[in-house]
Design a protein that fits this description.
mainly alpha
Length: about 110
């Protein structure tokens, strides 16, 4: 019986240690993703501003403008709250973003 208690206690300690290790790694990955977004988001803003300026000079089809707008708004969903992008939420956010961009791209005939 005593051996069973020791084995159970050891297994519990191991599980707790592994759990905290995994949580720590997930937290590290989340922090990295959020740091990358903080670097990426100003570039998205700059690209959007550049595109808008180009449309003032060059005749760009409305379908292309609409597709760029969707792509920009999709990127903004990540940039508005980088802390909301985690290992758990990122896959669905990326799928939703790609779906929106692909639908907009399809409208341009590209």
């Amino acid at each position: 019986m005593r051996r069973m208690i020791l084995v159970t206690a050891a297994a519990s300690m191991l599980a707790l240690t592994l759990s905290s290790c995994v949580t720590s790694k997930v937290d590290d990955v989340n922090a990295t993703v959020q740091e990358k977004l903080e670097a990426y988001c100003p570039k998205v803003e700059q690209a959007h501003t550049t595109f808008v300026l180009i449309t003032w000079v060059v005749d760009v089809p409305q379908s292309v403008k609409d597709a760029e707008k969707v792509a920009y708004e999709t990127a903004e969903t990540f940039c508005a709250d980088p802390a909301s992008v985690t290992v758990q939420t990122a896959p669905q956010k990326v799928i939703d973003a790609l779906d929106a961009i692909n639908r907009a791209k399809a409208k341009t005939g590209s």
